[in-house]
Hints:
Layout: H1 8-33, E1 41-45, E2 48-51, H2 52-68, E3 73-76, E4 80-82, E5 89-97, H3 99-103, E6 110-117, E7 120-128, E8 133-138, E9 142-145, E10 148-150
Helix pairs in contact: 1-2
Amino acid sequence: MPDEPADAGELTERFDFGAALIAEAAALAQRFYERQASLTVRSKGTQDVVSEADTEVESLIRGAVEARFPSDAFFGEEFGHNEIEGAEDVWIVDPIDGTQPFLSGLSSWCVSIGFARRGRLEMGFVAAPARDEIFMGRRGHGATLNGRPIHVSDSTRLDDGLV
């Protein structure tokens, strides 16, 4: 692409890494989901719980990021952040987005990973393993669902849409 930023290669490397990582994290989350009734669960506050699935999936993601990109910062829902202040590159993670549905055996949960550079979101990865879906997107490169390009509707009327 003629207007590719100077750091396009680094971003491509992170995108490829993120694509592999979301699949690995989703597989781990799915294994926990298949036995959600036996998971250890604790309360974080009113109607806010965390399960061993949340912590284990976040640990997997965090460990992989730290091993591959040790200078990148990490911000996770369960364990917080490391050296995020002033960081140029930050991974943002919600290991089980929708813990209540997850623990209830519903399919409306996912694993979410984002990557920001200099405060600007560059890419995101969302896996809904109970639905066999992986969404990925990168700034300037579009988005996909299970590898197929997706896009927003060009409809301009509410009654043409799905709400």
